[in-house]
Design brief:
By secondary structure, the chain is mainly alpha-helical. The chain is built from four helices and no strands. α1 packs antiparallel against α2. It is elongated and about 60 Å long.
């Protein structure tokens, strides 16, 4: 009698585990958006009010003309007001851009790498356009 041996099938080798991606910073969720939107709207209103107040002061400064020293001081004040309002306009543009991104569903993503911006960063700077890494890269490249 011939003995037949049956070979048991070997279990299939487990698929190699994919390398674990690096943990990404926790981004914002949809429920985080309403308070952030309110904060952005408040910031926008404060900036618009500040710019309007500065424009009013600029008009008043231009009306008071005195001696040369007064004119020099007035010129410096105008230059400072212009610089401040320019910085405020940039911030206003960033805030409005963030509000548009919310409408499109792209808010909270880095404009450079498209990864979520950390929730803590968004809470600190709600109009942030870049994650910390990309912001650092841009700042070091600008120097």
């Amino acid at each position: 009698m011939k003995k037949t041996t049956t070979t048991a099938k070997k279990p299939a080798a487990a698929a190699p585990k994919a390398a674990r991606p690096e943990p990404r910073p926790e981004g914002i969720s949809k429920r985080d958006l309403p308070p952030i939107r309110r904060k952005l709207m408040e910031m926008r209103e404060q900036l618009l009010k500040a710019v309007n107040d500065k424009q009013q002061r600029d008009i008043e400064v231009g009306q008071d003309v005195g001696d040369e020293a007064d004119q020099a001081t007035s010129s410096q004040e105008k230059e400072m007001l212009f610089e401040l309002s320019d910085n405020e306009r940039v911030m206003l543009d960033q805030i409005e851009g963030s509000l548009r991104k919310m409408e499109k569903g792209a808010y909270g993503l880095c404009e450079s790498c498209q990864k979520p911006i950390a929730k803590a960063r968004i809470q600190a700077v709600p109009f942030a356009r870049y994650c910390i890494q990309c912001q650092s890269s841009q700042e070091s490249a600008a120097v």
